Amino acid sequence: MSPYLLFFRNTGPDAYRQLSPEDSQRLITQWNEWFESLVAQGKAVEGQPLEPETRLVSGAGGSRVVDGPFPEAKEAIGGYVLLMVEGWDEAVAIAQRHPALAYGMKIEVRQLTPGCHLGVTTRPRRG
Amino acid sequence: MADADPIRSKPPELVEHFFRHEAGRLHAVLVRLLGVQHLSLAEDIVQEALLRALRAWSMGGIPPNPAAWITQVAKNLARDALRHGRMAASKEPALITEAELRSPGPPAGADGSDAIADDTLRLMFVCCHPAVAADAQVILALKILCGFSVAEIARAFLSSEAAIERQLSRTKQRIREAGIAFDLPRAEALPERLDGVQAALYLLFNEGHKASAGDRLLREDLCREAIRLASLLAAHPVGDTPRSHALLALMLLTAGRFPARVDAQGGLLRLEQQDRSKWDRALIGRGLAELGAAARGRELSEYHLQAGIAALHCTASDFASTDWPRILRHYDQLAALKASPIVALNRSVAVAHVHGPRAGLDAIAQIADRRRLEDNYLLHAVAGELHWRLGENPAAAEHFRRALQLAQVGPEQAYLAQQLERIDAK
Question: Which residue in A16, A18, A125 is closest to B54 by CB distance?
Fold first, then answer.
């Protein structure tokens, strides 16, 4: 079993503004069912939405701090789910079943690796 | 990463139509805080609050008290809107106070539900104000009180979203211009205003019930919403009149028979073909209780008579034991109270059951204003049926063919085509 992260993009308010209250409720319900069933099978370790508010820190000594959200908000990460699955195929298949894809959401699938190529100390979560 | 167990016990689920009904409730709360002239701003805020809930509650995170959560978000957004001067152009003093905004959402108890009922009722009186045309009242009520989207309203009325949008913005402008207050009407104005609200709810129910066009499931939702609002009205001290109870009784006694209206293929069933065991006995029981409550006092309104007719159908154990003479007497009274070609047409059906098909056809021939019904498929469907019972097949076929041309909905057309086949088979 390996850890994968799903990043949800293009999931800001504009993507859902046209939904009726009924549709919104249906989407929440389906979204929760998607997540809950992964939790029940032990495949989702955790997941949370992210607030859009952003600080971008850069420059030596962190001299540059820029406040977000940024104009290209569509590409901002709106939430993540940490999966513990067999491999790429399973992670992608799980992402493919996400109900919000129908409303333009994009999911980036990334594998977590135990070692950092720079040799920085890492502390993987114990599954 | 957090060590705390991120996986809680199964989160609460949202009850059916939670968002739709929350939208209606939040509109009422926000219009109280912001003023009637800021109806559109209130709508924007509610929309934003629902989006935030969607964002925060996805992935298994519905809070224990979702109604309080979403109310607080909406109030915070209202405060932000005030701060950013979105209301600066208004000459009205801001009715909203920091204290009010900071107070938590209405508690989910008896106290809170009273406040909610007050606000919703006030909004009902705004939406159904005499300054607004009857059709516009229904559409505004669906949008503001019942949380329907423009797309859903357009689907239910077989209209375009652009047309509904235009009508809504005209209606809101009309409300702003008329300076309608977010108040319960004063005693002297109450009877007339109450009539207006009842008429709008009646229209809303009929829009859902007549099934002449549009998405069937959505239209049943219209009926459910009409029942919800009429229940609220009848239970509130301001709306607790015999007429309100009669209106609610009429809705319940009609809706109680919905489950038997169509067969498994979606085909329409006549009253005599319906499986009465499919009727919703709980709704019918509530309807009969409401009819009892409506009998207080001496008033006999058109709602009383229509509910009385519906009750006679509901309490007959089978079609053959229907008390047609009493139904006919109710129709006679109804025609005297509020004459209309449709009432007269329905009366002629009762006449036919009491005095025979020939008398029914005579009653149809005597309908004043009959010309207004010539383009209504029902007139021809009824006339066709009565001719058929008399064995006058050519006349029956002619009427059924005319009815088939006029009917707009699939199930009604299928039903009429079936009647024509029945004649041809002879």
Answer: A16
